[in-house]
Amino acid sequence: MKKYFFCGVGGSGMSSLALALKNKGIEINGSDRSRDAGLYADKFKTLEKQGIQLFAQDGSGLDEQTSALIVSSAVEETIPDVIKARALNIPVYTRAHLLAAFFHEHNGIAVGGTSGKTTVTGMIGHILKEAGIDPTVINGGIMLNYADSLGLGNVIAGQGTFCVIEADESDGSIELYQPAVSVVTSLSLDHKPIEELKELFGDFVERASVGAVLNADNPDVAALKNRNSNILSFSVHGAEADLKALDITALENGVQFVLDGETITLPVIGRHNAANALAAIAAVEIIGITRAQAVQALSTFKGIRRRLETVGVTKKGITVIDDFAHNPEKIAASLSALKEYDGRLIVIYQPHGFKPTKMMRAGIVDAFDRLLSLDDTLIMQEIYYAGGTAQKDISAADLVRDLEKTGKRVHFIPNRKKITALVKGLAAKGDRIVIMGARDETLSDFARSIYEAVS
Q1: For the CA atoms of the chain, what is the radius of gyration?
Q2: pLDDT digit string (tens) for 176-219?
Q3: Fewer CB within 10 Å: N-end or C-end of the chain?
Q4: Of 232, 121, 94, 119, the residue nearest 176 (C-alpha)
Q5: 178 with 104: CB under 8 angstroms?
């Protein structure tokens, strides 16, 4: 029997793949430096309850019986697990290579894009699950309909022939996948330059053996329509497309739109989620799921954790929201959805990655400038540093200085206790406090602490 060791097993993408493989009968062991530091104990207890044996990240978990060491693209050669694997001549594979091998054993639907892919992956998985297909779904976020699935909620381990994955472009691993259906939700500046993204996504669309789904509202995505002979396109902004959402209306706890004369209601807010739903409907229609089945399933879709997720509403009428938005497109989508409703915004934003922040600086500043009102408040934490050899040649303070020129209310406060004190003094009835950012798993804890402080 194969025996894989996951270095960094606690990561969202690593843990979902580890659990999917464990469910197929493969022995999985792992390590994580966060566990060694005493962080996220509940998550690691859950992995152990699922039968994954955990070790310190010191090489002690590998031996001659280990079939392969699985690493993320960010893992460095100096990590003891990698050193031990090299010494024992154990093959070292990236998560993406192992995921591709697993994916290609199924009828694969791969969802790519610089925003929206986690939600669309969850939507497609939910539709297939409700249609009785029993898919495997490997996602980068917790699917709230399946929050208890294998303990973590970022994976559905089905017995059917279909597998749905979130295909990441940030490290170029999207080029490994040979899907039956490719979905491209968006294409915008994120971790890579636009020209490089165009090439990656164009090849991704071309490799789809059954067909591809494209966002007609994004010109760079729409331009890929000639890369595959079977294309379904979608639009929420009036572009020429196969699936067009009309009369989009914000509801108290969702969004409603009309598709080919039929009124569709989603229990998640925002025009961007109407677009996500169209992408999911198109993807399942390509493989033969009926429109009626898809719409019925989406009416019960609860969303993805940290995607405009309400932490709570205080007795004072203050709402605290936890959100994953981090690049300009995601920030704009979240703010646009929130601006459909009354109330001031107090946004606490933490950029992540020095290189991405430097590359997206102008876009991030523009998104906040365009969509925040003069009575809203933006507080920026320092750029999140996840380790490694990043060149720290930019600060969130630089973005704050850019925004100060616009007249917006903006603060650079690296200390979370000071942020909490400021927010506690600012927050009033009807305000929405949004904790926004990615990668840093403590952001959700911070959101809960903010909620307690203003309650």
Answers
A1: 22
A2: 999 999 999 998 766 667 888 898 899 999 999 999 999 999 99
A3: N
A4: 94
A5: yes
373-399 pLDDT, tens per residue?
999 999 999 999 877 667 889 999 999
Going from the N-terminus, what domains does the chain have, and what CATH number goes with each? 3-94 (3.40.50.720), 104-298 (3.40.1190.10), 309-454 (3.90.190.20)
Q: In 10 A of CB 449, how many CB atoms?
A: 18
Contact 57, 82 (CB under 8 A): no
Task: Name the phi and psi angles at 116, rounded to 5.
Answer: 90, -10
Q: Which residues contact 312 (CB under 8 A, 6 or more apart)?
A: 319, 320, 451, 455
| Average pLDDT score over the chain | 93
CA-CA distance, 447 to 444, in Å (whole number)? 5
Residues 190-206 as b/e (b if ≥16 CB within 10 A, e otherwise) read bbbeeeebbebbbebbe
12-43 core/surface letters (b: 16 or more CB in 10 A; e: else) = bbbbbbbbbbbbeeebbbbbbebbeeeebeeb
Phi, psi angles (nearest 5°) of residue 17? -70, -40
pLDDT digits (tens, 9 = 90+) for 260-282: 999 999 999 999 999 999 999 99
Q: Could you please report the per-residue DSSP string of 126-163?
A: HHHHHTT---EEE-SS-BGGGTTGGGTSSEE--SSSEE
Residue 395 corresponds to which tokens in the numbers above?
Answer: 């600060």
CA atoms of 11 and 28, how far apart (whole Å): 15
Beta strands 377-380; 53-55: pairing state: unpaired
Within 13 Å and on the Cβ side, how many CA atoms surround 250? 12
- Tokens encoding 409: 């209310």
Instruction: With residue 334 as reference, give the H or E element that holds it.
Output: helix 328-338
